[in-house]
């Protein structure tokens, strides 16, 4: 499978600062894959996302998006491949109403009006916000605003979606809504997803996890492989998902589980099957 | 009273005025402002008043609603009326009560000025009452577009206006939150001497500004990743369609201007 995003030996300082926020980072994301990036505050996750979108350019190393090498001349071409959803639901809502917001990106790309109308409709239907066409942002919940942000991205038909802590300001219900939506999109549209998150339960749903630590890639692997690190992750400033913590505490109390559960369902299954065999 | 105040508000409805092209409405209102100055006698003002009344009818709003909604402005107009009445000193004295002398010209001036003011306020309110702010912005952009040739930033201006409109409620909510947070910490913004109250606003403004800049930065990033690179090569989602009624509305203005000119110079 081809690489949709590939970073090679990236080193980066913010202009006018001395600290290297990324040190020799190499990452690749395959087509149709859901990758999660986790790491403590300030470990350089958002900076990675900014480099992928050409908001900054690396000091050393290369960024390649959908086989196009990213530089000042190709930045607008590569941006067409990537849709980004950010953390704050309010600060990325450009339009005065839901439909205007979804249309904003289309207007920028010079899409003809008739096509726009249809694409706005389809995108809002995909995120189940098609009943809110004329709603103003301050009348929407955070989760609804994030879904509109997703629709704005979908209307542009990118191949890659980058979510930079897109669920971190939402309540659990809003969070579940957005994650479920990402999952559906990945399944139906075969999108490549890169989600940057603090929420390891969200990361557990990805195909692959990249752990960042102080501007470097600390470890890379499947969720099982990463969560097998256990307390090592806690030392990196990450919070383990509840089922894993539970398994850990049970283990300390002398009730070892056979497999490390990543979801609550797995935990429950693990618990009652353990009892069955005894 | 603030709830009833309708100055600058939009009232959704489905009327001829609501369905008009915002460009036509903008031209209409600005032209009306100029035309009203032609009137200088009772007949002229009567015609202009009838014209305004017809416009109100076509916007599906009632005169009573407008008057009660514009009460603060009406009070201001009444005040101007009295001012004119007492201070104009021309023509014959009509009434003398002690030191108050009311002149013929005073009555004329007071009547005309308050009439003109009222009609202008009604017409401009009709514009905002029947047009969403975003349509006004779109209309303005489209009207100012020819000025792009002389480097006038029509698109940027319209975008700035629409973003400002979009963020007003957000920033209001935020002000409210910060105010509550400061009040919970013992700050008092509603009583005490003026100096203290002004001082209490500082800790309100600073976080508000800091957050507004943060928002602006986030918004700029969000716009850029969605492909915004200036007005060049952009298409518009909202189409403005000029229809027969828009042309008719402007024709009616020409007739009004003609009638007022006729009354002023020949009749
Ligand atoms: N615009 C900027 N200018 C200068 N330094 C910055 C800028 N943005 C971030 N940094 C610094 O770069 C480092 C990495 O920041 P980054 O935002 O990538 O971290 P992060 O992993 O996304 O953290 P978080 O989990 O808090 O979002 C931090 O030390 C931060 O202070
Ligand atoms: Mg971040």
Automatic annotation (TrEMBL), chain B:
It is found in: Cell membrane. The chain crosses the membrane at residues 26-53, 65-88, 109-132, 152-172, 248-266. GO terms for cellular component: plasma membrane. Pfam families: CbiQ. Signal peptide: none annotated. The keyword Ubl conjugation does not apply. The keyword Transmembrane applies. One of its GO terms (molecular function) is transmembrane transporter activity. Keywords: Cell membrane, Membrane, Transmembrane, Transmembrane helix, Transport. InterPro entries: ABC/ECF_trnsptr_transmembrane, EcfT. It is a multi-pass membrane protein. Belongs to the energy-coupling factor EcfT family. Forms a stable energy-coupling factor (ECF) transporter complex composed of 2 membrane-embedded substrate-binding proteins (S component), 2 ATP-binding proteins (A component) and 2 transmembrane proteins (T component). Transmembrane (T) component of an energy-coupling factor (ECF) ABC-transporter complex. Unlike classic ABC transporters this ECF transporter provides the energy necessary to transport a number of different substrates. This is Energy-coupling factor transporter transmembrane protein EcfT. It comes from Jeotgalibacillus salarius.
């Amino acid at each position: 499978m081809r690489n949709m995003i590939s970073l090679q030996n990236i080193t980066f300082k913010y202009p006018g600062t001395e600290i290297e926020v990324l040190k020799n980072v190499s990452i690749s994301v395959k087509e149709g894959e859901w990758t999660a990036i986790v790491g403590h505050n300030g470990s350089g996750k958002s900076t990675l996302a900014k480099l992928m979108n050409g908001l900054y350019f690396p000091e050393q190393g290369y960024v390649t998006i959908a086989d196009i090498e990213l530089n000042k001349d190709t930045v607008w071409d590569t941006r067409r491949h990537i849709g980004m959803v950010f953390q704050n639901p309010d600060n990325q809502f450009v339009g005065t109403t839901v439909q205007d917001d979804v249309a904003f990106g289309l207007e920028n790309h010079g899409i003809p009006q008739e096509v726009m109308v249809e694409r706005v409709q389809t995108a809002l239907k995909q995120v189940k916000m098609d009943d809110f066409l004329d709603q103003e942002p301050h009348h929407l919940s955070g989760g609804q605003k994030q879904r509109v942000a997703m629709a704005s991205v979908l209307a542009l038909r990118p191949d890659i979606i980058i979510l930079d802590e897109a669920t971190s300001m939402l309540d659990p219900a809003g969070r579940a809504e957005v994650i479920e939506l990402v999952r559906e999109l990945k399944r139906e549209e075969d999108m490549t997803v890169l989600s940057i998150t603090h929420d390891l339960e969200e990361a557990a749903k990805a195909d692959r996890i990249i752990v960042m630590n102080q501007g470097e890639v600390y470890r890379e692997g499947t969720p099982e492989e990463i969560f097998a690190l256990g307390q090592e992750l806690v030392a990196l400033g990450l919070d383990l998902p509840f089922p894993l913590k539970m398994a850990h505490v049970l283990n300390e109390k002398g009730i070892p589980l056979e497999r490390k559960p990543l979801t609550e369902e797995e935990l429950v299954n693990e618990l009652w099957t353990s009892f069955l065999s005894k | 009273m603030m709830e009833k105040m309708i100055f600058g508000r939009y009232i959704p409805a489905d009327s001829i005025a609501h369905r008009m092209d915002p460009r036509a409405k903008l031209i209409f209102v600005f032209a009306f402002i100029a035309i009203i100055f032609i009137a200088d006698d009772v007949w002229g003002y009567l015609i202009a008043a009838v014209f305004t009344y017809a416009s109100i009818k076509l916007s599906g709003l009632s005169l009573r609603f407008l008057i009660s909604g514009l009460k603060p402005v009406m009070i201001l107009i009444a005040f101007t009326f009295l001012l004119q009445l007492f201070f104009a000193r021309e023509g014959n004295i009509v009434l003398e009560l002690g030191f108050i002398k009311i002149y013929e010209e005073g009555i004329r001036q007071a009547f005309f000025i308050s009439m003109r003011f009222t009609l202008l306020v009604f017409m401009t309110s009709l514009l905002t009452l029947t047009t969403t702010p975003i349509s006004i912005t779109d209309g303005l952009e489209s009207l100012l577009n020819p000025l792009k040739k002389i480097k006038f930033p029509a698109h940027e201006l319209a975008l700035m206006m629409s973003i400002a409109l979009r963020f007003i409620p957000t920033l209001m909510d935020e002000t409210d939150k910060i105010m509550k947070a400061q009040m919970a910490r013992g700050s008092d913004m509603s009583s005490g001497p003026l100096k203290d109250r002004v001082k209490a606003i500082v800790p309100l403004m600073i976080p508000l500004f800091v957050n507004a800049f943060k928002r602006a930065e986030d918004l700029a990033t969000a716009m850029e990743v969605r492909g915004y690179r200036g007005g060049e090569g952009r298409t518009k989602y909202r189409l403005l369609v000029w229809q027969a009624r828009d042309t008719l509305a402007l024709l009616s203005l020409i007739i009004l201007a003609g009638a007022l000119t006729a009354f002023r110079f020949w009749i």
